[in-house]
Amino acid sequence: MTRVGVIGCGLMGSGMAKNLIKNNYEVIVYDINDNAVTNLVNEGAIAASTPEVLASQVDFLILSLTSPDLVKEIVLDEERGVLYRMNQGTFILDMSTNDVNITRQIHQAAQGKGIEFYDCPLSGGPDGANNGTLTIMVGGNKARFEEILPILQTIGKHIEYLGESGAGQIVKLCHNMVVAGVISLLSEAFLTSEKAGVPKEKLASILQNGSGQTRAMDVFGVNILDNTFDNVKFSLANMTKDIHLYRNLAEDHQISTFVSDVTHQLFHLGRNKGKGSLDSSAVYEVLWEIM
Q: How confident is the model at residue 1, as a pLDDT?
């Protein structure tokens, strides 16, 4: 039986692990949150005491972590890095949203150890993770892409190989920058409509039946309409992190970020105002408070 490890069992990692279990993979999990691990053990997973122990036992290792620094530490730490515990010919699938330069650094180090490292960031949120319908953006060695495809098809519906190492992260960062910008503009338009005398619900109906239609409205707009910002589809803190990574990428390639600057400022203001644990749609609340 193919063994798959999952390090990081939060909203995304837990959903992916459950789908792997349902599809008869032997799943070994690790998270610093004992409750998250226990919940997956109750679903049929095996708990690992440390990332290093997990890494030595698996054919495929999925990472679902919260920051580039954590990914780098888990993989490359000279004393505890999983890269130094895995067997040659195995695979690391980084499903975190990561820095492109760090991604390529890890890919190069993995090649030297005979291990394939793929950047496989995701779109679709916790619902997509639970339902196995995620969009997966893949960068890495095309020659061995077919070998990781069965794992990806277990957790995702739309899977696209985009190019060499880092390509998946490039697309994910650009994607999330667009989503953050749309959320910000929707928030401002709703506030404007209401102040001018038309309820935001009526504007939303027209948007979704006109040229302004956007899937971001379907995913995040409901929270704005209902003021349910604690219904977290993708946290404001995580979106702020991704915007920062996007800006680093743009600046690395001498692209002016004047279009995205206001969105960047709004999300950072929201985080600084203590809204990081709320949904990204809480940017609406940030705009309302500074009006």
A: 84
